[in-house]
Design a protein that fits this description.
heterodimer; A: about 190 residues; mainly beta; Lipocalin; eight-stranded antiparallel β-barrel; about 15% helix; about 50% strand; B: about 190 residues; mainly alpha; Fumarate Reductase Cytochrome B subunit; two-stranded antiparallel sheet; 2 strands; elongated
Amino acid sequence: MRNLYLAGIAAILFGAAAAAAGAASYTADTEQSRLEFVGVQAGAEFKGVFHKFTANVDFAPDALAGSRIDVQIDMNSVDSKDKDRDTTIRSKDIFDVAHNPTAHYVTKTITKTAAGYSAVGALTLRGVTKDVPIDFQFVPAGAGAKLTGSAKLNRLDFGVGQGDWKSTENVGDGVKINFALVLKPKT
Amino acid sequence: MPNQSPPTRYSAVAQAFHWIIAALIVVQFTLGWTAQFLPIGARKLARLDWHKSFGMTILTLAVLRLLWRLFNRPPELPPGMTKFERQAARANHVLIYVLLFVMPLTGWMMSSAKNYSVSWFHQFTWPNLVGPNEQAFNLLKSTHDTLSWLLFAVALLHILAALKHHFWNKDDVLKRMLPFTKSEKRP
């Protein structure tokens, strides 16, 4: 019994030490963070944001192997500053939020680059999972950090746009993603 | 120039402005009025995409035309018209000129207010005139729609008046705006 007790303490201490040596854990403050996409519609760019998402980030510049960015996006929270367009985007032919209410992005590998970091992660969007690379910067700020970056993807890779919306004449295939996450240490 | 006698015919440039804009207005009515009956979707987006590109073309031509008009005298109205007829003709022409600007401008503004930036045939994007605003969009849309009826009315009056001059008064008011015709010498 006593041995078990000691073993428990040792395990906790060991765990804490391992965590200290590895990546620090953060969550994004959604209120202050921004997740934006830029599409091309009728030849002109338009912007939208997702108001609701959660981001869990384990990151340390010296422990990239143990670092990870994990983002869950509530697809219903899309806002392109036009109700008609938002309703259309949520519909079956585009995001199909009734069947795919969330999108998920989780990194597999993170590498150092001249400008910051780049990562390759798996994006699950509208039920399709594909690798999407991202470029980002990680700037510590107090106990937390700011994680800003961008990505590019092709919406048709994920089946975003069925029927009439498959045409890239009206809505471009390429979509830019910009994110600025305000990270708070996980308690 | 002030000492020159007024021309008897519209110049080739004035004729080109007149007929190109006239043809574009017919295209605009066809696209704009039919788009209203389409459900929100890719087809409506595509039709309004053309409508906006042609609209911006008309606005550009209207600017050039007005500049041309300021420095080039048009032929005078035929003798024998009553004071009322002269005033009515002038008022109708002024109204058409005003609408050549106001129609595209209200269209451009309503697109901006709905956060759908205006492209010019997918070659470049015009800047937004106002920020996203649903109330402003509704007001601008009803203005654009109502003024389209006014334009329809004044254009119809303009056409009927030209035909009346040609067939009833048998003067050269219509012919002098037509390419490949000759106007009789004025005494």
